[in-house]
């Protein structure tokens, strides 16, 4: 169960409201790198957690913190919208600035909410819950969480750079710090589980016969052409990261043949010519080429 | 530019076509853990790559390999659909098995494609390109790629377990091996860049003043109640993974106050009572309670 | 800020796990009538609340309760999935029951989560945040909330009817009770604001000149034909509900003319024939009819 | 069956075409508060209507009227686009106004339609039919309809305020009037059915044993903290609106326990450490803290 | 403006209601090949029509007919749902047939609508208005319409084959006939405009300098490998269909170079190593290979 | 299997980077008329091809070419973003131009990608794979392909017109040429199959009894009113295009009756009044009208 105290986790001040920055902040609310995503992702991971209870607890804790991050950002959007233009007056129609501000706004910030935040990204695309990863495999989920916090911290840094409002910079510097913590927290779980090498490959519980290991440590390179620079890196030679193989690199070649599907069944209602081989084709071609048809 | 040879990267055989397994395989085509996602993700990361060319090259190579994985899976779906039922004949209406097979199918496999694959997941939800992560930050992208390959390999293993068709098990054992390689490949980039600690926090290029570091290594625990088990783990004590701080744990407390938004502007067309404080409220309440109104 | 105690708001027991019921329950998690929707809707209404603080407080309180409802349902889904089939063994391929259960499942419950809930509806369609209504107008939002709780309680009742598991029936009877309360709670706000008539029309703050009131109380009936039964109801005669007019009914007639758009501009790159009136048309028609062409 | 006369229900004039206003108008076409939504919602409610025929008739009538509203708005968008810029000429690249108008446009209004409307909202997000509510319960649907017309009228009023074009203001004043009527019309159905109290709770047909009524009239308040202002309102005391209970308010407490899911099944392919309790954890932690490992 | 008479365009009878067929029929309502799509597509093409009025009229007429097709199908779904199971009783839990029917249903047909149609496809995915094509170019739109009616008629034929209900077969035979008409109708417009050759390429109004015509009639074949069968068809030789060129076939080769993007700007917050060329890479690689590091 | 050479199919130069044009170009990447769509559509048609192998080969070839088109456009977007503004500095806040450029940008081009392309359209809406048509019927697919290339060429021409950058105009002139070829290529298949008349109606393999041919060649006109201009065109008279009938035109009339659904079942939990005929209605109406109630 959940409780609220109505206060913000960190102070949210806006000195110079800016409707365009309100729109930009939406990316941190409803973008794929945003806070609704991590809030829901950690909560669903907690609620579906099987295995050691300590990970359920940790996920629940951080998922709960993230609700407060959405709250902070929604507040920041509302404050950035105060004073936003709401009309295309006749003079404004000739004033590029009003048009420009309105044109750059998420118009739903006026039309749909009366100057409040939406659960959308910076382009006004609503957040879609398919982005909530909760795989039932702890290591896979931890990497999904690191990815979310890494892209999230990149986003927060860009927002920090975009604005020159001291209040917004202050709030974002808090968010950036929390993203730092959360990145490390999920990686620390991997270390705690025995180190990330021991966790590889993920899942580390699949039976040996489920993998053709002769293909497990080869970089297949499907690039062709005289100018192609051969690849050489940590992933083309040396021991594999899981300690079970040796990396190598090979030109990609097909191990399979051309696929051959059965002809269309009558119930599929393909064209008759697909089913029969369409003898009419030759004639059509001849005709087109000026032949006798 | 791209080229094709029409052959499959690995052989795709189906001994006992099964329309339900065809539906399950769709998750590996159009699911968020699937091959369209990694194909598009690596290609977009390559096409937007800025910085050392070797990463563009590697991303392009592996993105190109993934197109062939979609090809293999689409072929596997089509082969699993051969012989699928296409009618609810009178006898079938009483035969649970035909109904059951049709009911368990992705009906679009008959209705929309005439027994071919779709770019959808196992529930028939079309893939949505918002899942393509290409952040411009190499480390963030590498973690997104590891997450994709980790959830992808979990999925492939579950599919391998689900089926007992030898041909499908063979194909999936190849896919599982490639996911092993790709997981390590992206992690190897982090190692190559100087080790994953050096990459933390991501981005590692934000200026110091953009982060309130006193919040960067603290686990804030918003869990309350007498029974709550305190958290203790790698992420609550010891040096931080980036070597720049020391982990600690604290009960979460608000650093901010209750937010206060300005009253509705007239142009927002809130209810009059929102704007005036609605003196009518008291009377309504009294009336409801049997008072004088 | 938010807090959690890790306990369920109400007990969640499943005596006879049923993967099909797990799928049905998803509608109450990620369906448009479900709990993620009300949770996010009330929280966003709270975070964007302008005007009397008491409504922000109430919305925040109930939004916080709803997080716990998602938690209960996610737990119920996970418990219903315990023991679910995860394989199409050779014998099973001939056993309709295993196929049937797998076919009726949300396959992502195995493939994507390893037997946990997803933020999707009963068809596996992920919840989309466009369903979060927070208009900035309190009365409009209250009606949106009543609608959500009314469809939500209909859904919960149908789920209660669908299952015969005593634990599930018990949990749903709690949910149904909470939906009862929440329906009334939002209507009570309208009463508190002065009664629902006084709130009509919504918004009640638009200026008189913004409405052609001669069209405000007429039921325009565009139904035609000899058999059409004329409408007569509370909305065709008698005083209007806002006390400002008298209902009437009229056959719908156009007050406007046929619209006429300008011809295509060259920069629109319509077909030349669209721009010129295509004199070739007559010839083509004649030719088709066997004329001289 | 449906018929058309090609005329507009109300006249649509645009004196000063404005591409930004065209984009804003899209919210009334393809937004969640818009006309496609109500058109499809009322038609689907009509087509699925079970019970008294008069409601099917009424829904069909008003659904048919709404098609004409989409027609009016699509015409208004097309007229607002006439004269819109379609080029970034060299001089324009330095002229903020052209950039500004193009930047504020829905670019698909030029690129995809050649100056016509789209079934999208003001941010260019296409309308998604999941917003069509037709629950089979008349009262639930009526509230969904009121909610749609209430948010719709708020939107129309904001659009009326946004523009200063006399033709557009005239058209919107007609739309606002129709929204007035439709709000009342759906509420009048509730009155006609016996009054809204008698309709509560919705559905009013569920059996008594399906509800734990001890939770049906209590406001559970999960807000905590010394500063929290206790809630007092129509919904915390006095008779419930359905006349069957008495409102009260209580601090929210959990009635359930901590949930406990079964451990991962092998077929779920969690990490081995999840399944075994991972004894390696302690060592890892010791190592991290500088212990013996 | 639009009118309705409440009657079905063609009779809709269901002798043996079948919830699985109800789900299949949904593809014809809310699928991409379905009736909502053509209804909205033709209406939006009509409402945005610029140029000869006769095409607006025709599009409006057929768009209006299509509303009646949605009505017929929605009725057919509702009738197929009558008698559908709504409970998982104890006995049913062991009866594969009930589970099978429920498992094969769109569960929202019970849970969300109480046995009525939804604007979704056969997988329960709601229709998304991005499928409405109205390009402003008449020929492009006509081809989009033919495509819609062609896939629509394939779908209707498959549905006709799937069912053995005489009433449903009767209704679908009407739909199939209408799809025949509509396919030809849109092609007839192309003929009327001067013949389809004259309409090519679409748009036929772009200026000559906007096209590098040396690439306009060549089939570039990017297939490689010893086994590749060379292509020969109507499109590799002979006069082009627009009469302006001669088809040929060539192996695809790049006309461009490798792309080179600028390095990351500091404000993009890439990793430092991306911006500097990361001299640490060599050491990491050496270390991995057992060298001196 | 697929291969890449890292080169662009055609050269991509940008002389004057323009972030607004970068946003416009996105329509050609992730719009419904764009290159991701055709790439995936042709590849899925190839992978599901049943019948003559030559069509699989051709589809595979052109699908492979289209990957290179996405590559070119993604490169063009990245180049147009170089130099884009990334900050709202104090001075900029007063400079309309910076606001204007930022306001007109896809903000995700900075916030989410660090100046790279996204798989989205010009409004930032991610591409959705439901647009991939692969019906299993060759003729239906060919028309879907023509429609895609026709709308695609209209789009490319509008982009060509929009920009004045010589490099961009050069690249688009190549794209326009390829769209010319691809339009004709798919139409040539129809000719090769025996001519488009022989392919009509699509599918041409459905059994005669599946069609009520008396409705197959009639234009039903549901337009009414004194002013309605009767339709006359190639589709209202003369031989049908498939040579099997004669076109005619008739006023649309219903061939069916009013639909009548069964009353709500108890398990649907409609309102009691829906199930009983609600005798309370009359009283409510009387009361409203001032009667005795």
Overall description:
Chain A is mainly alpha-helical. In chain A, 48% of the residues lie in helices and 4% in strands. The first copy, chain A, has eleven helices and three strands. Chain A has helices spanning 19-30, 35-47, 53-81, 90-94, 96-104, 108-111, 138-162, 166-192, 196-199, 272-276, 280-288; strands at residues 2-4, 218-221, 248-251. A two-stranded parallel sheet of chain A has the order 2-3. The longest helix of chain A is centred in the N-terminal third of the chain and has 29 residues, at 53-81. The radius of gyration of chain A is 28 Å and the shape is extended. The N and C termini of chain A lie far apart (79 Å). Chains in contact: A-B, A-C, A-D, A-E, A-F, B-C, B-D, B-E, B-F, C-D, C-E, C-F, D-E, D-F, E-F. At the B-C interface, helix 1, helix 5, helix 7, helix 10 and helix 11 of B face strand 1, helix 5, helix 6 and helix 8 of C. Strand 1 of chain A pairs antiparallel with strand 1 of chain C.
Which helices and strands occur, and which strands form pairs?
The structure is a homohexamer of 293-residue chains.
Chain A: E1 2-4, H1 19-30, H2 35-47, H3 53-81, H4 90-94, H5 96-104, H6 108-111, H7 138-162, H8 166-192, H9 196-199, E2 218-221, E3 248-251, H10 272-276, H11 280-288
Parallel strand pairs in A: 2-3
Helix pairs in contact in A: 1-3, 1-7, 2-3, 2-7, 7-8
């Amino acid at each position: 169960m959940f409780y609220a105290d109505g206060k913000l986790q960190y102070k949210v001040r806006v000195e110079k409201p800016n409707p365009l920055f309100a729109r930009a902040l939406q990316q941190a609310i409803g973008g794929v790198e945003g806070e609704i995503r991590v809030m829901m992702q950690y909560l669903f991971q907690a609620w579906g957690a099987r295995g050691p209870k300590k990970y359920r607890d940790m996920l629940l804790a951080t998922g709960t913190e993230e609700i407060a991050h959405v709250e902070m950002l929604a507040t920041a959007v509302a404050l950035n919208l105060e004073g936003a233009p709401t009309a295309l007056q006749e003079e404004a129609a000739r004033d590029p600035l009003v048009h420009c501000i309105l044109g750059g706004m998420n118009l739903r910030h006026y039309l749909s909410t009366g100057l409040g935040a939406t659960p959308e990204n910076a382009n006004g695309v609503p957040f879609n819950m398919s982005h909530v990863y909760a795989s039932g495999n702890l290591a896979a989920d931890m990497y999904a969480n690191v990815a979310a916090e890494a892209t999230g911290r990149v986003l927060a840094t860009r927002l920090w750079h975009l604005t020159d409002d001291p209040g917004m910079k202050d709030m974002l510097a808090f968010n950036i710090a929390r993203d730092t913590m959360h990145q490390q927290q999920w990686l620390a779980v991997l270390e705690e589980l025995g180190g990330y090498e021991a966790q590889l490959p993920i899942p580390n519980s699949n039976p040996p016969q489920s993998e053709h290991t002769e293909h497990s440590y080869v970089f297949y390179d499907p690039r062709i052409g005289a100018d192609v620079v051969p690849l050489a890196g940590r992933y083309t030679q040396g021991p594999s990261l899981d300690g079970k193989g040796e990396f190598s690199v090979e030109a990609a070649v097909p191990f399979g043949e051309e696929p051959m599907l059965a002809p269309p069944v009558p119930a599929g209602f393909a064209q008759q010519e697909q089913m029969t081989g369409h003898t009419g084709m030759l004639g059509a071609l001849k005709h087109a080429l000026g032949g006798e048809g």
